[in-house]
């Protein structure tokens, strides 16, 4: 009942507190690390596009292959190809060419199990590219693949000798009240209430994100790119009950990504 009103208050406080990244930040050589195909668009799609518009070199690295996202509905090999193709199409909308996309190819849910090999791969990428700016998913996000991706990148950075700035972008951190309308009915009621209380609610996580990029004028580009992730955005007619992103929170979850700003938490300068 009070969710829309409280949400507007929260957004107003959040957006007044953020420091906008300057033009130098938009021009700095960048690597975006994403656990899954669609996280790059959700978390920083607008920022990627604005960087490319500024003539910046941007590379996107995907950790998981997306093959388990529709388990039982689509064969894994087929889905792996679908997710990769969707990622290339979405990146194209954001101005990133296929040659600047890397698929590490780990199975969904098993990124952490492959930590050592993933760190080595990321080290090789960082040594070759020496990016000025790095974007990773939030270290505090509940999906294991998300925090594992962030931890792997940070571990790889410990061996680097070049300075860089690391920014966390929230994806599933938005899936908490009041940012997202939560259905507390059924078997999930106790679990979700505990999560809501622990998040205090929403302040302890999202309000740590003090940096931002204004994407108000290019929201249409971000929306177009997200639509390219069709397997995540479009109803599967063979199983209409399967949840897609627009279903989460009756659409309020996706609304979190279509505001005037993309927000980030700056880990800081990483030196040896």
Instruction: Give me the strand/helix succession.
Output: HEHEHEHEHEHEHHEHHHE
The termini sit apart by 50 Å
CATH class annotation: Alpha Beta
> What about the largest sheet?
8 strands, mixed
Write down the CATH topology.
Answer: Rossmann fold
Helical percentage = 40-55%
Unreliable segments (pLDDT under 50, ≥5 consecutive)? none
CATH superfamily assignment? LmbE-like
Strand numbers in spatial order across the main sheet: 1-7-8-6-5-2-3-4
CATH architecture: 3-Layer(aba) Sandwich
Briefly note the structural class of the backbone: alpha/beta
Radius of gyration (CA) equals 18 Å
**Total number of beta strands:** 8
In round numbers, the mean pLDDT is 89
Shape: globular
SSE layout:
Blueprint: H1 3-17, E1 19-20, H2 23-27, E2 30-34, H3 39-53, E3 58-64, H4 76-93, E4 101-106, H5 115-129, E5 133-137, H6 144-157, E6 164-169, H7 189-199, H8 203-206, E7 211-214, H9 219-227, H10 230-233, H11 252-255, E8 261-270
Keywords:
globular, Rossmann fold, single chain, alpha/beta, eight-stranded mixed sheet, 272 residues
Question: Short summary of the structure?
Answer:
With 272 residues, the protein is an alpha/beta fold.
Explain what this protein looks like in three dimensions.
By secondary structure, the chain is α/β, with parallel strands linked by helices. It has a single domain (19-175, 207-267), classed as 3-Layer(aba) Sandwich (Rossmann fold), CATH 3.40.50. It contains 11 helices and 8 strands. The protein has helices at residues 3-17, 23-27, 39-53, 76-93, 115-129, 144-157, 189-199, 203-206, 219-227, 230-233, 252-255; strands at 19-20, 30-34, 58-64, 101-106, 133-137, 164-169, 211-214, 261-270. It has an 8-stranded mixed β-sheet, sandwiched between helices. α3 links the parallel β2 and β3. The mean pLDDT is 89.
């Amino acid at each position: 009942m009070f969710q829309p009103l409280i949400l507007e208050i929260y957004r107003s406080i959040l957006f007044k507190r953020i420091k906008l990244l300057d033009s130098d930040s938009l021009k700095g050589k960048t690597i975006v690390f994403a656990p899954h195909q669609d996280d790059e668009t959700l978390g920083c799609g607008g920022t990627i596009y604005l960087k490319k518009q500024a003539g910046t070199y941007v590379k996107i690295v995907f950790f998981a292959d997306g093959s388990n996202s529709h388990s039982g509905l689509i064969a894994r090999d087929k889905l792996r190809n679908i997710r990769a193709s969707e990622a290339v199409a979405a990146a194209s909308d954001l101005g990133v060419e296929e040659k600047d996309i890397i698929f590490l190819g780990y199975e969904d849910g098993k990124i952490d199990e492959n930590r050592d090999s993933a760190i080595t791969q990321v080290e090789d990428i960082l040594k070759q590219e020496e990016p000025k700016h790095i974007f990773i998913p939030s270290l505090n996000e509940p999906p294991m693949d998300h925090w594992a991706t962030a931890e792997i990148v940070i571990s790889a950075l410990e061996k680097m000798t070049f300075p860089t700035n690391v920014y966390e972008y929230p994806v599933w951190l938005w899936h908490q009240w009041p940012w997202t309308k939560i259905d507390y009915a059924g078997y999930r009621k106790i679990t979700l209430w505990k999560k809501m209380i622990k998040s205090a609610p929403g302040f302890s996580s999202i309000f740590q994100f003090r940096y931002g990029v204004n994407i108000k004028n290019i929201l249409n580009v971000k929306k177009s790119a997200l639509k390219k992730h069709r397997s995540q955005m479009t109803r599967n007619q063979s199983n209409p009950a399967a949840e897609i992103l627009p279903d989460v929170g009756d659409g309020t979850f996706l609304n979190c990504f279509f505001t005037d700003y993309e927000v980030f938490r700056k880990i800081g300068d990483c030196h040896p």
